[in-house]
Here is the input.
Amino acid sequence: MDFISILSIFVMACFVGYYVVWSVTPALHTPLMAVTNAISSVIIVGALIAAAAGSQADGGQTAKWLGLVGVVLASVNIFGGFAVTERMLAMYKKKERK
Amino acid sequence: MRNALVGASALLFSTPALAASGEAVNPWVAAAYLVAGVLFILALRGLSSPESSRAGNRFGMVGMLIAVVTTLWTHSIASLPEIAGAIAIGGVIGFVIARRIAMTDMPQLVAAFHSLVGLAAVLVGIAAYLNPGAFGILDATGEILTVSRVELGLGVAIGAITFSGSVIAFLKLNGNMSGAPIMLPLRHVINLGVLAAIIGLTAYFAIAPTVGTGAIFWTIVGLSFLIGFLLIIPIGGADMPVVVSMLNSYSGWAAAAMGFTLGNTAMIITGALVGSSGAILSYIMCKAMNRSFISVIAGGFGADSGPSEGAAKIDRPWKRGSAEDAAYMMKQAENVIIIPGYGMAVAQAQHALREMGDMLKEQGVGVKYAIHPVAGRMPGHMNVLLAEANVPYDEVFELEDINSEFAQADVAFIIGANDVVNPAAKTDKGSPIYGMPVFDVDKAKTIFFVKRSMGGVGYAGVDNEVFYMDQTMMLLSDAKKMCEEIVKAL
Here is the structure.
């Protein structure tokens, strides 16, 4: 993809983010932070590419290990972030009407 | 979706030339990442109400699964067992932490998680620099593309700032490091200098010939770790909600920068979402404290706690109440508004408080909880703490929704909060909290103020007029013990 189409996606996504986040109820701001944390770990994609590539280039071997460490860190975040969000959201209950 | 993925892989294997470039040229692959990005948008959209929130979280998980599987599928993997092992190790650690963490420790956990995203971004950036071929960012002559160098420089810089800043925020929130601001002499000059150096070096890194750029790249990384550290140490504990939100935003921008490098839609959409989310939360927090973002970043708040205030405080008359008084008055009341603050959470009083609320409701009293945006240590923290104590979320109200009701309230029950009910914010122009939105508790018929002693003051270090009002009764005790005594007296 050329730079300008990537930039267009980015700018549009910023606007989407702006409106979507304002619609989040303040009561759920902590789960919002936890889940944004989890999804920002999509950076794992970069770490996977580094880890998956063989060591054909000079820096390939180092890059691979850096990638693997990156995969571990991002996985902590992905699993931890989604699980803790799930745990918090399960606590929000409505009033029981008798 | 499954079909699309299978189709994607089939197409890809038939065109091996594309796989080598590492770019998502294949339309199916690009579509898969786009779907992941859209699922992430839906994950945040779900949080607009507690009912839809859990479905939203599931969308997020599916999105992540698609992104990971697509990446693994489309790259010729030289080391699948190692990758699986890395995911398993990280997954188990993350899962165990998520299950064990106490809800009061949520701000530290989020800060710690942000630091991991930051560090991962730095590692990915370094890996891309060392092995650019695998990331498809080489031009015809075998040099890293100029635009990619800018993205790499920015990506590692933001990632490193996120990492070291979050580590400091974690240490401050977790109490390993004093919450008091650490003020270096000439810190603004130093910080601006380092920032300028990072920007300048990134520009030079982009235009310089590849030979010899190694030193520049590593200097950018080093300086960025340093500036993250320098930026957060002068910021006091009271401003940590803003800092945590701000670092949330940075972790998003770091992911976005890496997304640009890889031309990956899922990463770019996510980065933009997370970046805006953190920025909006920082804005909300600043507004709730009536502080400008710049003054928070400049730091130093809470270093000197109102020296002029102390003298006049001691000799003013105030009334002391007992648990029996509170129980009696609240039983008679038609409606009670409870205002919990962070002190309530520190005393672990949320369960006893909920029990008190339940007893009152059984006696036909209307009970509502009023929450200030800065009631906890991070945005929405108090709502989570109350939810954990089984307070139904439809009894919990935000500042602007409930503030008009104090005029009709029989009792305002303040527990562990102070600055957020201080009328000085409305009247006293000289007060450090002037202009901060506060609850109009002074309009309630009776006020009960649970506080450990008359000596302590809130974060801002200001005396509170509410202590000395005619309708106020001070309940001097530990928050948890007081709630338990009131429950007994009911």
Q: What stands out?
A: The longest helix of chain A spans residues 60-89. Helices of chain A lie at 3-22, 29-40, 44-52, 60-89. Chain A touches chain B through 85 residues (CB under 8 Å). Chain A has a mean pLDDT of 89.
